[in-house]
């Protein structure tokens, strides 16, 4: 339009109409977009009943709503209708017989309106002045709003009533069965964690066990979606990991107070190996301490002199330093050594007992961490199986049965696999027919056998090692006339001297030295 | 009229008012004589102010001739009536050179103008004359001049032809060729009056006095108002609407309606578009507006275009009317050109 006062005035009068038309158009687009989004989500939800794909509705909804509102606001701000279109709409709706549209068009084409043109523009201005923008451009719910509302209602109904529904026989149905089974596994893991925690007085294991069991029960419930199941299992893994980290920090704090608060600096495998090695060393140290404590309790009856006792306590203290044993333990051993050097066997025994208690507490923490780690790994395996089932990478049965068990089951059957036979061929008829997952000739495999509730626990021998007899026996195999090894006998003096020298030179923990000495003692004589 | 000559807004407003008043006066005078036919009267006066010609179609006795005669009475212009018959010759319409002898006894040719040299010409039962005679009107209607013996003779303005024809009695008639039909601004159908109108006709025309029309406008004023009507501005989108409307009556273009595709052989000509716009301008002024609206075009589409649409064999066989084609075109074009804010 030109820059005449009439043009400016007409522009000013039509601006409210332009604004309201833009809002009304944005509302229409918003309704259509909501309907489209709801329809897409509904289709997605229906597909989840057949194909196990994640459907994180609660997480997506805020973002979808935010995007729609932002789009509507942007449309109002940047997609305003041209003035001519607004004028023509106003003409039609207000019955102005093209007054405004003609005026806008004439002002765009004619620089200096005169005569009838100017008269027409004046006429249009007076018509525009009496224009009611609310009547001309009403902002009301568009026809698509009902469709959008119906689709949103259907989506809400689905999320309330149909969430997690899976059609049997479809991948989603198999996934639901897998989730149910893994829920049972988690319940078992939680129960065992609880039992281990109670048996070993492991606080973190006791604290986290209900969460594992609760998650398992939720997975056992009907209509649990894939993403929901994965979310719950991951949450359990996170809780177990957090508890394990907490215990690890406590262990690190106890082992070396100055270096606490830096857990997980290495790879998990190397950390676990380091922790296992540490546990072994501490176990050996505990054995040595218990050995010494036993000697101290028996008093002079053991035949161990005060000097010998002090020497062994000194060696124990040095080896504990090398082990990086907890400072409290080392301090207790040092106190016991000083008391032994002073001839105070009672004080030495008491100090060593305190150190032993500290060490046992540390071992409990290690046991706690190990139990948590075991549980976490089993839960993680459940998560992996659920994820694998979602990818279609294996049937639920094969996911449940571990590989080695399957092979042993096949090999131990009365109908072993025919050598060289094609793997795709069915096994011959017999007692084991259909025993391999996916290889049977029957229509269905039937319900899976429930898993035994046993987990591998680190066996720990309790009690103090003491002297005993060692029996060595060689089994003579068929075709052999006599044993090929000589009978056990005390080593010769030169060998014993060499062993003694090697033991004194190598920086071996005192517990190992004790064990080695005990071994040779059991053979018949001290080296 | 140059921009400098154009009237100022106040003067333009006065002229618009004068136009409206004059239009109403002429219209009123016709109504004093003619009973009913309100829309017909409006359209006849519209064609008069637009400078176009009108073809009236109706059975005998409906007042077609009376309408034209009354119009001539209302205007201070020369009126002539030509009764078309099969033996009517072009010279009977245009005039001829006659040999006349002056007082000195010398003989010379002198042109004797025919009835076409009137300002309002009633061509009664135009389809009864031969095509040769009908075509004598072509130049006069389009160019407002006639060529006789190699000499072009302009006709006095305003020049307004009203032709009548009887749609029923077709024996011995010569249907107007398309070129002739295209010269008419409007083709109007005179409907049979209703019961009340018949009673009114009986009352008005059978008494001792028959009503007559007064002269309300002279030729010069009418010419001025015709020129003023051409000044009415038309917006681009209104012009586009008119063009789309005309195109929609054609079977070929993309914007054609289904009816046009099936039943139309040829659609309205560009002269139809001109007629639509010219008549729209007059209608706008008559309603006190200084611009043409799409409503004007919709109201005038049928009389402006109906005689310019040639139906094909299927259309003729199925009795399809040109009005149906035009009404479909109006609906179709309205939907296509209505402003939207969805884009």
Written overview of the protein:
The complex is a heterodimer of chains A (527) and B (343). Chain A contains 18 helices and no strands. Chain A has 527 residues and is mainly alpha-helical. Chain A is elongated. Chain A starts with a helix and ends with a helix. In chain B, the strands form 5 sheets. Chain B has a 5-stranded parallel β-sheet with strand order 3-6-9-1-10. Chain B folds into 2 domains: 204 residues, 3-Layer(aba) Sandwich (Rossmann fold); 112 residues, Orthogonal Bundle (Helicase, Ruva Protein, domain 3), CATH 1.10.8.80. In chain B, helix 1 packs across helix 2, helix 10 packs across helix 15 and helix 13 packs antiparallel against helix 15. Chain B is globular. With 343 residues, chain B is of the alpha/beta class.
Arrangement of strands in the largest sheet of chain B: 3-6-9-1-10
The named CATH superfamily of the largest domain in chain B: P-loop containing nucleotide triphosphate hydrolases
Shape of chain B: globular
Biggest pleated sheet of chain A: none
Name the CATH architecture of the largest domain in chain B: 3-Layer(aba) Sandwich
Tally of extended strands of chain A?
A: 0
How do the helices and strands follow one another from N- to C-terminus of chain B? Answer: HHEHEEHEEEHHEEEHEHEHHHEHHEHH
Q: Please tell me the total number of domains of chain B.
A: 2
Assembly annotation: heterodimer
Mean pLDDT over the full residue set of chain B: 86
How many individual helices of chain B? 15
Q: Level of helix content of chain A?
A: 55-70%
Rg of chain B, Cα atoms, Å: 21 Å
CATH class of the largest domain in chain B: Alpha Beta
Q: What are the segments of chain A in which pLDDT stays under 50 over at least 5 consecutive residues?
A: 259-266, 394-428, 438-443
CATH topology of the largest domain in chain B, anyone?
A: Rossmann fold
Q: Rounded to an integer, what's the Rg of chain A over CA atoms? A: 41 Å
Distance between the termini of chain A: 113 Å
């Amino acid at each position: 339009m030109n820059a005449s006062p009439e043009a400016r005035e007409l522009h000013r009068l039509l601006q409210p109409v332009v604004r309201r038309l833009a809002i009304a158009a944005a509302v229409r687009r918003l309704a259509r977009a909501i309907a489209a989004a709801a329809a897409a989500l509904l289709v997605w939800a229906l597909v989840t009943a057949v194909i196990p794909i994640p459907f994180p509705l609660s997480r997506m909804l805020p973002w979808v709503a935010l995007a729609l509102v932002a789009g509507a606001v942007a449309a109002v701000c940047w997609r305003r209708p041209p003035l001519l279109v607004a004028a023509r709409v106003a003409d039609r709706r207000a019955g102005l017989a093209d007054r405004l549209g003609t005026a806008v068009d004439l002002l765009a084409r004619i620089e200096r309106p005169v005569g009838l043109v100017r008269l027409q523009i004046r006429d249009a201005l007076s018509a525009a002045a009496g224009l009611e923008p609310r009547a001309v451009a009403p902002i009301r719910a568009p026809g698509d709003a009902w469709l959008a509302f119906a689709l949103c209602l259907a989506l809400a109904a689905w999320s309330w009533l149909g969430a997690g529904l899976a059609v049997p026989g479809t991948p989603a149905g198999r996934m639901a069965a897998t989730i149910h089974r893994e829920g049972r596994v988690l319940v078992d893991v939680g129960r065992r964690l609880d039992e281990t925690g109670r048996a070993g007085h492991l606080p973190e294991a006791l604290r986290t066990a209900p969460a594992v069991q609760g998650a398992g029960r939720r997975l056992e419930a009907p209509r649990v979606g894939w993403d929901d199941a994965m979310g719950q299992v991951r949450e359990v893994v996170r809780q177990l990991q957090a508890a394990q980290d907490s215990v690890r920090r406590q262990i690190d704090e106890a082992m070396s107070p100055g270096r606490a608060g830096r857990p997980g600096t290495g790879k998990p495998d190397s950390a676990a190996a380091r922790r296992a090695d540490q546990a072994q060393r501490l176990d050996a140290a505990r054995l040595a301490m218990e050995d010494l404590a036993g000697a101290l309790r028996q008093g002079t009856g053991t035949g161990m002199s005060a000097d010998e006792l002090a020497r062994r306590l000194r060696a124990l203290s040095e080896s504990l330093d090398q082990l990086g044993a907890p400072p409290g333990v080392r301090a207790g051993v040092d106190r016991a050594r000083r008391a032994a050097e002073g001839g105070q066997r009672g004080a030495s025994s008491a100090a060593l007992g305190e150190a032993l208690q500290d060490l046992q507490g540390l071992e409990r923490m290690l046991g706690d961490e190990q139990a948590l780690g075991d549980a976490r790994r089993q839960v993680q395996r459940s998560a992996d199986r659920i994820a694998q089932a979602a990818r279609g990478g294996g049937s639920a049965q094969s996911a449940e049965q571990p590989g080695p068990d399957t092979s042993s089951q096949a090999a131990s059957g009365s109908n072993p696999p025919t050598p060289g036979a094609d793997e795709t061929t069915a096994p011959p008829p017999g007692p084991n027919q259909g025993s391999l997952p996916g290889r049977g000739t029957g229509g269905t495999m039937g319900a899976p056998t429930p898993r035994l509730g046993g987990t591998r626990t680190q066996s720990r021998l309790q009690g103090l090692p003491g002297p005993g007899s060692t029996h060595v026996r060689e089994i003579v195999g068929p075709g052999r006339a006599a044993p090929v090894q000589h009978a056990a006998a005390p080593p010769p003096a030169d060998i014993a001297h060499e062993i003694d020298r090697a033991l004194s030179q190598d920086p071996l923990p005192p517990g190992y030295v004790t064990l080695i000495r005990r071994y040779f003692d059991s053979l018949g004589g001290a080296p | 009229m140059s921009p400098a000559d154009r009237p100022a807004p106040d003067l333009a407003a006065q002229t618009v008012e004068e136009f409206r008043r004059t239009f109403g006066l002429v219209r009123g005078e016709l109504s004093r004589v003619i009973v009913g036919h309100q829309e017909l009267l409006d359209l006849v006066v519209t064609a008069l102010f637009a400078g176009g010609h009108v073809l009236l179609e109706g059975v005998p006795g409906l007042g077609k001739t009376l309408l034209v005669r009354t119009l001539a009475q209302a205007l201070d212009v020369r009126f002539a009536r030509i009764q078309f018959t099969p033996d009517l010759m072009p010279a009977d319409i245009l005039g001829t050179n006659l040999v006349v002898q002056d007082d000195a006894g010398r003989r010379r040719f002198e042109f004797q103008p025919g009835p076409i040299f009137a300002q309002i010409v009633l061509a009664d039962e135009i389809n009864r004359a031969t095509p040769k005679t009908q075509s004598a009107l072509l130049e006069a209607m389009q160019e407002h001049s006639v060529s006789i013996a190699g000499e072009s003779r302009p006709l006095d303005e305003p020049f307004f032809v009203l032709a009548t024809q009887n749609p029923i009695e077709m024996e011995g008639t010569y249907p107007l060729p398309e070129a002739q039909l295209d010269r008419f601004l409007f083709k109007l159908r005179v409907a049979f009056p209703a019961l009340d109108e018949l009673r009114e006709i009986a009352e008005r025309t059978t008494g001792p006095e028959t009503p007559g029309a007064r002269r309300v406008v002279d030729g010069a004023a009418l010419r001025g108002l015709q020129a003023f009507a051409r000044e009415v501005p038309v917006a681009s989108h209104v012009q586009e609407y008119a063009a789309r409307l005309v195109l929609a009556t054609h079977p070929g273009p993309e914007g054609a309606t289904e009816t046009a595709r099936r039943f139309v052989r040829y659609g309205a000509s560009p002269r139809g578009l001109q007629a639509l716009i010219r008549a729209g301008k007059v209608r706008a002024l008559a309603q006190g507006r200084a611009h043409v609206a799409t409503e004007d075009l919709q109201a005038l589409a049928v009389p402006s275009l109906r005689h310019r649409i040639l139906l094909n064999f299927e259309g003729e066989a199925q009795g399809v009317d040109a009005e149906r084609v035009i009404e479909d075109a109006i609906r179709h074009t309205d939907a296509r050109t209505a402003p939207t804010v969805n884009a």
